[in-house]
Specification:
Order of helices and strands of chain B: HEEEHEEHEHHHHEHEHEEHHH
CATH superfamily of chain B: P-loop containing nucleotide triphosphate hydrolases
Number of strands of chain A: 4
Largest sheet of chain B: 6 strands, mixed
Number of domains of chain A: 1
CATH class of chain B: Alpha Beta
Enzyme class (chain B): hydrolase
Distance between the termini of chain A: 45 Å
Helix content of chain A: 55-70%
Structural class of chain A: mainly alpha
Radius of gyration of chain B: 21 Å
EC number (chain B): 3.6.3.-
Largest sheet of chain A: 2 strands, antiparallel
Number of helices of chain A: 15
Oligomer: heterodimer
Helix content of chain B: 25-40%
GO molecular function, one term (chain B): ATP hydrolysis activity
Strand order of the largest sheet of chain B: 6-7-8-3-9-10
Number of domains of chain B: 1
Distance between the termini of chain B: 66 Å
CATH topology of chain B: Rossmann fold
Strand content of chain B: 15-25%
CATH architecture of chain B: 3-Layer(aba) Sandwich
Largest interface: A-B, 30 and 37 residues
Number of strands of chain B: 10
Keywords (chain B): ATP-binding, Hydrolase, Nucleotide-binding, Transport
Shape of chain A: globular
Number of helices of chain B: 12
Organism (chain B): Marinomonas gallaica
């Protein structure tokens, strides 16, 4: 009997679609990659390298949406500053890629990136040291967002800042970083950011094979993050997380230090965002302070809302769909996109409170209602 | 000069022989009830913007007792519970759980883990989760983050949940979402959550608000059956209900204790009749 209950409590979680989704995601990735590398360019099924890069970019956004969904959908912390963690991860990767340029820059300096030569700097700032090592740059891409999230979360959650105040503080955080990274003196390339990358781990960034590899790496890492998150959120820790979202005082009064749960979940989420940023930069070829802009962080929230918060897959689907729409829409009417995005947000909030993932349940309950009405009449 | 005196005073305070340094006290130590007393509340004062919610309040509760707190709105009942459970800090006074645990130095989570459970006035359960999950979360377990991440239900824990489900009569609703329960059932689930944690002291705020007569009766049975093994403090407005369960009643008025005794004693107490039952007595 007890084993049965155990099995029930384990298997009842909403993760039943996760594995099929991961298989689908990886399947599409493999097919698209094969279509790019193996088929001739004039074939009808050929997938252009541009499309591959675009898909890779979408997957990075999907990972970012996943990070926001974990803390917003499951823990009720509405972060409007997750773009900051994404950009920090991106900058770490960007610094590595800059160091990889070596003496092939415009000024041909063996060690200093172009913008430093331009600013007449004589030697590398201390925080650029070690960034020529890939492993070290990746550690930084994970640790820096994680550390920032830890300090921020520890201060905010320990003083029990919640709700809209917390959201405003996260906006301020990302805005402050935006202003800081705009400054040339910061040593991150100022306004122009970091760009003109040549190669990653010795592979040419312009080559089709490198692009496809980055795309596959993104898909694999996204899948792993999705599976890990699903596992974490269906453990008892996930139940505590939901409890914090729905009734934080109650959770505290049954003995959980809710602020610690929030801090660690926030750190986990920030690390995912940092990894997404690190995967994003080599694919788009540039990172600049614009990534810190508050608008970007708000957009992430809209992706999650469209897909359905509190459903990890929903966040991914939302990010993919909205970004595809953005690519299409900005090609037709570049100035109209923000209006469309705003309208989308309003419509989703009004008519799809649970997002696309909740659509099925919504339709079902509507059908049930109309059936009941028929019975009554 | 006074600075010197102050530091001397501080030194003397530090080396008082009748006290144990805080860092020497074992955090998980048992509740010391060798004097048959489980809760000592002394000289409690708390004011909000000049309003004295608690005014030199003293309250002693015996181990295993079922105590009812009554009093008009604003008498300080809920504020007292807030102080005991660590939600509010008083301006002055002391609250000891057993003889050793100073509750004023602890936060909500610590106090809950010591074995003090609290039911809110408005039933508060985790609505999006099943009844079973609600109880699982409330179990007396290691509640640190990593331990919770890798926690698995042990057979004895499942038995404990079953036991609680039987007590609160929600066995059939095990896998139902807590939000779908009726109001009375939510009240019971919340009491069940307290029980799952195996507490020493239960603070129960208005357990029968919004319950049918039948449910009220069953709640009374449940609470009286708990007393003895555990200590129960009930805040309630429903005088019928209080009469049906109470052995000792404490009347609060304007933040301090007005009277204490059996229901009969209370009802014949002049002060109480004046301030609390005054209107009813006048009407009758």
């Amino acid at each position: 009997m007890s084993k049965l209950i155990n099995w029930f409590t384990e298997g009842r979680s909403s993760g039943q679609y996760t594995l099929p989704f991961v298989i689908l995601l990886l399947g599409v990735t493999v097919l698209a990659s094969a279509a790019n590398l193996l088929l001739p360019q004039d074939s009808a099924l050929y997938v252009s390298t541009y499309s591959i890069t675009l898909l890779g970019k979408y997957l990075c956004y999907a990972m970012l949406a996943l990070a926001v969904d974990i803390i917003w959908g499951y823990c009720g912390i509405l972060s409007l500053g997750h773009g900051a963690f994404f950009a920090l991860g991106g900058y770490a990767m960007g610094m590595y890629l800059m160091r990889q340029i070596g003496d092939r820059g415009v000024y041909g300096h063996p060690e200093l990136p172009d913008f430093m030569v331009f600013l007449d700097w004589q030697e590398l700032p201390w925080f650029w040291l070690g960034m020529d090592q890939f492993w070290f740059a990746m550690v930084v891409a994970v640790v820096v967002p994680g550390l920032l999230a830890f300090v921020f979360g520890w201060l905010a959650f320990r003083s029990r800042v919640t709700g809209v105040y917390l959201s405003i503080m996260t906006q301020a955080l990302t805005y402050a970083l935006l202003l800081a990274f705009f400054r040339n003196e910061m040593g991150f390339g100022g306004n122009n950011g970091l760009t003109d990358f040549k190669e990653i781990l010795g592979f040419d960034l312009q080559a089709d094979s490198t692009r496809v590899s980055l795309f596959i790496a993104t898909a694999v890492i996204l899948s792993l993050v999705l599976l890990a998150s699903q596992r974490i959120l269906s453990s008892r820790l996930g139940k505590v997380t939901l409890a914090v979202r729905d009734a934080e005082p109650r959770t505290r009064f049954i003995g959980y230090r809710t602020e610690r749960y929030k801090v660690w979940l926030f750190v986990y989420s920030a690390v995912i965002a940092g990894v997404a940023g690190a995967l994003y930069v080599p694919q788009v070829g540039i990172i600049n302070p614009g990534e810190f802009s508050p608008i970007n962080s708000i957009e992430i929230v809209i992706w999650v809302a469209v897909g359905g918060r509190g459903t990890l897959i929903g966040a991914i689907i939302g990010a993919l769909l909205v970004n595809y729409a953005k690519t299409r829409f900005t090609a037709i009417m570049p100035d109209g996109w923000l209006f469309a995005l705003g309208a989308l947000f309003v419509l989703v909030t009004l008519f799809l409170p649970k997002g696309l993932m909740g659509l099925y349940g919504q339709l079902q309950s509507k059908r049930r209602q109309s059936a009941e009405q028929e019975v009554q009449s | 000069m006074s600075a010197l005196e102050n530091s001397l005073q501080g030194l003397r305070e530090t080396f008082r022989r009748d006290q144990v340094w805080p860092f020497l006290i074992d955090k998980q130590s048992k509740v010391d009830v060798s004097n048959q007393m489980i809760l000592y509340v002394e000289g409690l004062n708390l004011s909000f913007d000049g309003f004295k919610a608690l005014n030199d309040l003293n309250l002693y509760v015996n181990d295993g007792e079922l105590r009812c707190l009554i009093g008009a709105n604003g008498a300080g009942k809920t504020t007292l519970m807030d102080v005991i459970t660590g939600k509010s800090k008083p301006d002055a006074g002391s609250v000891y759980f057993g003889q050793t645990h100073n509750l004023l130095t602890k936060d909500e989570a610590d106090i809950a883990q010591l074995g003090i459970g609290r039911k809110f006035q408005k039933p508060t359960v985790f609505e999006e989760q099943t009844v079973f999950d609600n109880l699982e979360l409330s179990l007396k377990t290691d509640k640190r983050v990593i331990q919770t991440l890798f926690a698995r239900l042990s057979p004895s824990e499942i038995d404990r949940i079953d036991e609680v489900l039987a007590i609160i009569g929600l066995k059939k609703h095990r896998f139902m979402k807590a939000g779908a329960l009726s109001h009375g059932q939510k009240q019971w689930l919340e009491i069940g959550m307290l029980l799952a944690a195996d507490p020493r002291l239960l603070l129960i705020d208005e357990p029968v608000a919004g319950m049918t007569a039948q449910e009220t009766e069953r709640t009374a049975e449940l609470l009286t059956s708990l007393a003895g093994e555990r200590t129960v403090i009930v805040v309630e407005h429903d005088m019928e209900f209080v009469r049906s369960i109470a052995r000792t009643v404490t009347v609060l008025h304007q933040g301090s204790v007005l009277a204490e005794g059996t229901m009969d004693q209370i009802q014949n107490n002049k002060d109480v009749i004046e301030v609390y039952l005054g209107e009813e007595a006048a009407e009758a």
